[in-house]
User: Which sequence fits this backbone?
C-alpha cells in the first residue's frame, strides 16, 4: 500500500470454489491468489449484499463496474461454519464503510423495491469526472543532475507496479525517484526503445515504456495521476526518442507453415505467421496471418477473420500486469473497432509488429502517436558492449565507465576480481617484493593473459540443480507450492531413513568394532525384520516433523523480515532443500550435521532467488530454522 492508504479488512475468500485472499483498503479492493492479482477501486463497487450460496451457507454478492459493464461476483468463506456469518457481516459492513455515503446499485434481490424504479446511469462516456491528485508525500530533495543536464518534464505520484515515484525526463536520462528522495532506477535516453499510451483496466491513464537491457527488451508500465500528465509525457517522449532501426530485422518468409487446428488455408493462400496462446480479453486463441486475411482460431471454432485491407493500424501496448500486446485497429462496415492482442512473450509481439508493419499501408500507420500529432516512435537495440570505454554492472546491469570502481546506480563493485586480488596482498609484502626485485636487477615479468571462463550452461530444470545451482533452480521453479515439491520431499526423507538405519545396523558395528553380543540392540535389528522396519518408520516421522518445524520457523522469520513473501512458497523451498539428506545425511553424525547445514545454505539461496529477499534476511531466515530444530532435539533428548 502507498502513503495515506489505510487497510480496512483482509481474509481468505472463495470464488467459484477457488480460494483467494482479499484485502480492502480505503482506495482499493485487492484479490490475490490467482495467475495475476486483481484490483478494483472502491468507487467501482456498486453494491455488496449478503446472500446464500447453493449449499445454504452465507455468502456475499458484489456488483462491480468495469470498462466492459457491470459484473457480478459471488464470494464464499473458507472458514469454520460458525464463523462464516461473521465474515459475511464484516465484509458487508467494511465495504459499505469504505465506499462512504454514495448511491449503490441495487441487484435483483428480494424486497429491493419496485422493479420499474429508475436507476441513475453512470456517466462514463459523456464526461469524465476530475480525478484529484493522490496524496503522495512531497519530495523536497531533487536528484543530483550532472553538468549540462536539463529537466524537460517532471511528474509526481506516478505508480510503477505498487510503488509511487517522482519521474524526471532530462536530455540525458529518465530518473525514477522514490518517496524517500532516493533514485530507484534510471535509464539513459539511448536505452528507451518505444512508448505507447493506454488505459489500465481500472481506468488509469498509463504509458508502456520499452527499455533495452543486456538480457533483451523489458517493458515498464507507468500509471499517471491525471490524463493531462500522460499527454504531456507522450509529447516529450515523441521529441526525445529519435527515429531508429527496428529491433527485429525482417526475417525471410517461410515457404510453408503447417496448421494442425481448425484453420486450413484456401487454394493459393500462403500462411506467413501462426502463433498460439494469444489472449483476447479472457479467451486464448491462435492467430494466423496469410497473404489475404487475418484469422482468429478458438478452441472449437473460427472466431473471426479480417481481410488485410481492413487492418488500419497496429500499436504496441501493455496488459494489466505488463504483458506485451498489440492494439490492432480494424475498419469495417460498422466503423472502426480496436482489437487487443496479448502475447506470452516479447519476441512473439515484435514478430507480429514487424509482419503487420509490412502489410499495413505506411500512410495509415500512426504508431504511438496521440490524435493531436502524428509521429512514429520505433525501437532500438540495446547499446553494444563492444565499446571499450563502457562496462555493465554485474549486479544491476547499469552502464558505467570502464575506469569506475563502483556502480553509479547500485553501488556494487564493478571489478570484484581485481579488488579481491589487491586487498589480499598486504602493502608490506608488496614493498618487500619490489625491493627484492630491484636489488636483483630484474624486471617484473609481465602477467600472463587469463583465460576466459567458459560460458555457463543454461539450467534445464534437473533435480541435481537444487544442490549444485540452487539460485538457478529456484529461479526456474519460481512460485512453487508445497504440493509441487511433495514427491521429491517424501522420497528424500525415505531414502535418508532407510540408508541411515542400514548404516547403523550393519556398517557401524564393523567400522567401530562393536561386539553385537555386548549391545543387544544391534543383534535385535539384524535378526528381527519387523523391528528394523519400525525403526525406519520412527526415524522417518521424526525427520518429517523436524523439517516441517524448520519450514515453519523459516517462514515466520521471512515474513517478519519481508512481509511480501509467501509462506506456502517458502515451505516448498525448504522441502526442496532436503535433497541433501538423501545425498550425505545417512553418514552417521558428521553426515547429519553436514546435510542440515547444506540444506540451510540451499534454502538461503532459494529465498534470495525465489522470494527476492536480501542476502542477509534470507540467511537469517534459513539458518535460524535449522538452529531452532537442533535446540529442540537436544532439549527433548536431555529429558
Assistant:
Amino acid at each position: 500500500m502507498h502513503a495515506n492508504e489505510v487497510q480496512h479488512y483482509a481474509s481468505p475468500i472463495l470464488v467459484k470454489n477457488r480460494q483467494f485472499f482479499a484485502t480492502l483498503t480505503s482506495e482499493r479492493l485487492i484479490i490475490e491468489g490467482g495467475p495475476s492479482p486483481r484490483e478494483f477501486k472502491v468507487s467501482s463497487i456498486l453494491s455488496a449484499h449478503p446472500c446464500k450460496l447453493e449449499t445454504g451457507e452465507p455468502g456475499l454478492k458484489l456488483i462491480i463496474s468495469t470498462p466492459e459493464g457491470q459484473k457480478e461476483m459471488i464470494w464464499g468463506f473458507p472458514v469454520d461454519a460458525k464463523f462464516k456469518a461473521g465474515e459475511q457481516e464484516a465484509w458487508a459492513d467494511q465495504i459499505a464503510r469504505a465506499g462512504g455515503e454514495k448511491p449503490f446499485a441495487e441487484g435483483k434481490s428480494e424486497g429491493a423495491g419496485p422493479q420499474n424504479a429508475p436507476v441513475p446511469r453512470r456517466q462514463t462516456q459523456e464526461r469524465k469526472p476530475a480525478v484529484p491528485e493522490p496524496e503522495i508525500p512531497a519530495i523536497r530533495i531533487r536528484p543530483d543532475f550532472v553538468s549540462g543536464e536539463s529537466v524537460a518534464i517532471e511528474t509526481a505520484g506516478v505508480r510503477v507496479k505498487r510503488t509511487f515515484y517522482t519521474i524526471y525526463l532530462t536530455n540525458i536520462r529518465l530518473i525514477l525517484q522514490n518517496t524517500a528522495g532516493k533514485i530507484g532506477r534510471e535509464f539513459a535516453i539511448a536505452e528507451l526503445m518505444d512508448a505507447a499510451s493506454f488505459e489500465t483496466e481500472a481506468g488509469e491513464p498509463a504509458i508502456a515504456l520499452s527499455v533495452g537491457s543486456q538480457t533483451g527488451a523489458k517493458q515498464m508500465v507507468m500509471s499517471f495521476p491525471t490524463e493531462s500528465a500522460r499527454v504531456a509525457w507522450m509529447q516529450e517522449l515523441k521529441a526525445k526518442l529519435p527515429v531508429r532501426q527496428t529491433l527485429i530485422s525482417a526475417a525471410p518468409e517461410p515457404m510453408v507453415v503447417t496448421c494442425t487446428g481448425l484453420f486450413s488455408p484456401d487454394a493459393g493462400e500462403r500462411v506467413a505467421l501462426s502463433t498460439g496462446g494469444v489472449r483476447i480479453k479472457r479467451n486464448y486463441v491462435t492467430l494466423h496471418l496469410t497473404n489475404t486475411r487475418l484469422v482468429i482460431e478458438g478452441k472449437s471454432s473460427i472466431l473471426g477473420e479480417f481481410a488485410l485491407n481492413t487492418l488500419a493500424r497496429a500499436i504496441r501496448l501493455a496488459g494489466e500486469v505488463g504483458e506485451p500486446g498489440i492494439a490492432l485497429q480494424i475498419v469495417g462496415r460498422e466503423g472502426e473497432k480496436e482489437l487487443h492482442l496479448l502475447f506470452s512473450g516479447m519476441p512473439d509481439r515484435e514478430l507480429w509488429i514487424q509482419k503487420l508493419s509490412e502489410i499495413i499501408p505506411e500512410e495509415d500507420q500512426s504508431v504511438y502517436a496521440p490524435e493531436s500529432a502524428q509521429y512514429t516512435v520505433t525501437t532500438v537495440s540495446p547499446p553494444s558492449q563492444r565499446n571499450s570505454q563502457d562496462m555493465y554492472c554485474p549486479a544491476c546491469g547499469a552502464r558505467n565507465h570502464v575506469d569506475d570502481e563502483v556502480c553509479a546506480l547500485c553501488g556494487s563493485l564493478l571489478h570484484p576480481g581485481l579488488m579481491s586480488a589487491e586487498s589480499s596482498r598486504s602493502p608490506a609484502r608488496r614493498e618487500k617484493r619490489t625491493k627484492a626485485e630491484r636489488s636483483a636487477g630484474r624486471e617484473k615479468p609481465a602477467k600472463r593473459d587469463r583465460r576466459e571462463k567458459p560460458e555457463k550452461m543454461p539450467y534445464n530444470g534437473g533435480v541435481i540443480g537444487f544442490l549444485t545451482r540452487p539460485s538457478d533452480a529456484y529461479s526456474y521453479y519460481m512460485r512453487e507450492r508445497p504440493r509441487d515439491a511433495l514427491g521429491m520431499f517424501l522420497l528424500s526423507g525415505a531414502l535418508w531413513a532407510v540408508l541411515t538405519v542400514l548404516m547403523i545396523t550393519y556398517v557401524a558395528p564393523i567400522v567401530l568394532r562393536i561386539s553385537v553380543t555386548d549391545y543387544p540392540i544391534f543383534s535385535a535389528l539384524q535378526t528381527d525384520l519387523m523391528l528394523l522396519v519400525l525403526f525406519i518408520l520412527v526415524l522417518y516421522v521424526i525427520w518429517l516433523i523436524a523439517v516441517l518445524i524448520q519450514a515453519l520457523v523459516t517462514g515466520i522469520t521471512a515474513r517478519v523480515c519481508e512481509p511480501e513473501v509467501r509462506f506456502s512458497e517458502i515451505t516448498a523451498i525448504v522441502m526442496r532443500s532436503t535433497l541433501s539428506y538423501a545425498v550425505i545425511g545417512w553418514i552417521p553424525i558428521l553426515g547429519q550435521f553436514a546435510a542440515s547445514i547444506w540444506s540451510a545454505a540451499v534454502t538461503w539461496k532459494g529465498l534470495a532467488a525465489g522470494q527476492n529477499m536480501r542476502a542477509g534476511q534470507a540467511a537469517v531466515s534459513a539458518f535460524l530454522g535449522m538452529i531452532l530444530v537442533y535446540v529442540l532435539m537436544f532439549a527433548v533428548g536431555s529429558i
About this structure: The two ends are 48 Å apart (CA to CA). Confidence is low (pLDDT under 50) at residues 101-139, 244-260, 364-387, 421-426.
